[in-house]
Amino acid sequence: xxxxxxxxxxxxxxxxxxxxCRASQSVSSYLAWYQQKPGQAPRLVIFxxxxxxxxxxxxxxxSGSGTDFTLTISSLESEDSAxxxxxxxxxWPLTFGGGSKVEIK
Amino acid sequence: EIQLLESGxxxxxxxxxxxxxxxxxxxxxxxxxxxxxxxxxxxGLEWVSLIGGFGYSTYYADxxxxxFTISRDNSRSTLYLQMNSLRAEDTAIYYCAKGIATSxxxxxxxxxxxxxxxxx
Lengths: 105, 120
Fold this sequence. Notes:
Order of helices and strands of chain A: EEEEEEEEEEE
Shape of chain A: globular
Oligomer: heterodimer
Order of helices and strands of chain B: EEEEEEEEEEE
Helix content of chain A: under 10%
Helix content of chain B: under 10%
Distance between the termini of chain B: 40 Å
């Protein structure tokens, strides 16, 4: 089970966003983060805990291993408003966290 | 440019069947694992099923095991999901997605989804 927190984060442009994903058992570094905007398909942001996907801005970074992971957006922009999901690939079935919504004030 | 286009969604009665398709372009289809992920209205993402590049390996979520079958036709660059014994809780947008070559079972390209509604 992947547990994400907070459920909702409301911040102003330029502020730093920190999202958490906690696994009920170790997933090593086999964790990804996806961004989903309303009406759109998910978009891969980070894979293998800390690798940015193609085309993802440098303000997005991932860290962690084992059971505790963090997605950081260093300086929020209005376009970062979305729901962020973590996903593990360490064991079957593949699972997603419940999501964290980032709102821009 | 890699593109994934789902089709086959619609309204079906409980207990009915539906087959989803996902047509891929812009890639060597057989090089990649492919997956289906669904999203119930207003809810989060739920992984459904995954198939290896040559179709020999398949995996399912417990919620669909025995009812859904994933398959692929590499000659047509198309992924399928046969859904039988459908239930109301299967109502969702179904997305197909492509696995990353270097990190299998993470997904870097997604289709726009097809809506499946199970209702009488």
